[in-house]
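Hi P.,

Sorry for the delay on this. The queue was packed all week, but I finally got your sequence through. Input first:
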Amino acid sequence: MVIGFLGAGNMAAAMARGWASAGNEGPSKMLFTDGGSGRAAILAAEVGGEALADNRELVAASDVVILAFSPGQLGEIAAELEPPEIVVSLLGATPLDRLSDAFPEAGVIRLMPNLGVEVGKGVICVAEAGPESPAAHERIFSALELLGSVVPLKDSLMDAATALMGCSPAYFAQVAQALADVGADEGLPPDVAIEIVAESMAGTAELLGRRTPFEISVAVAHPGGSTEAGLEALEASGGMGAFRAAAEASLERMRKV
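Then the structure:
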């Protein structure tokens, strides 16, 4: 399966790197264009793909076309293309009906991955489409499963999901940096501090598949202990409210696109 990326930004790059790491299980070939930034050539060289100068050439050579440009460019780019057979959209805040209007002759899939797809540990939310879609798109879903967990959702819930899984790696990275900085201030080598935090986060992620967030907090925060002191300080500084505000701000910005 030849996959063509119309765009070579961060999310396109993350997906391409994830598929490149999958070896023979991934796409047989990946093609890339960009808007003149030169990123397509750099990414193609990195993942063993090919950069093309023209969007129409890419569409003609691809089995699946992935939309990985700015949502505001949808109408302009769609108008210049011959209808692809299958379109996969990464465009934020762009519902299925708008995508179908732009590509009325194509099979359309709307999805939103997060950065974890780069290492095969991503979350990929996919908008549920009509009953005719699953058979035609089976190969695409198999390819997506190489990149992480695929979560089907109603199209109307995709923005809310994006605010959680699409944006949250940046929030988690901020938490990791803050904790690692404290460790470094106390004498830990910075790389060791980050490793300790990262492994702790990975273990907590596994636990969240078995226990609720509340159960984990109770198990760690013994009365009068150091974790309880930390949680009290976190709450005094905004705590859970700060993360909730971050997610709500992300969702509000998406809805203004």
